[in-house]
Amino acid sequence: MIWVSALSLMVAGCKSIPPPTPLAQLTPQQAEGHAVFQTKCGVCHADRTNDLLHGPALRGIFKKDYLPSGAPANDDRVMETILHGRNMMPPMGNTMDQQDLDDLLAYLHTI
User: Fold this and answer.
1) Can you list the domains of the chain with their CATH numbers?
2) Which of 33, 44, 51, 70 has the fewest CB atoms lying closer than 10 Å?
């Protein structure tokens, strides 16, 4: 009986992540960011599912308080990771121009 109460509390405390914005509803900048994601990030990261690939799934990355690393989920930390890499993720800053980075960040906010 006690474990049922504990389980109920745990489930009640869990927040579900809202679904990503449908692709058809993306702004032009977000759609460009989706294309950048598919080309540069999609090999290692899932964006619209929670599937694990070579790196963590990024669905809901800005809908949580913290990144998988424990760092705050904000534009500065995400951009720093994209530019300079982290752990097994290579730095991607030299593979994208500023417009690609801005578009990618706009897209990441939709997933």
Assistant:
1) 19-108 (1.10.760.10)
2) 70
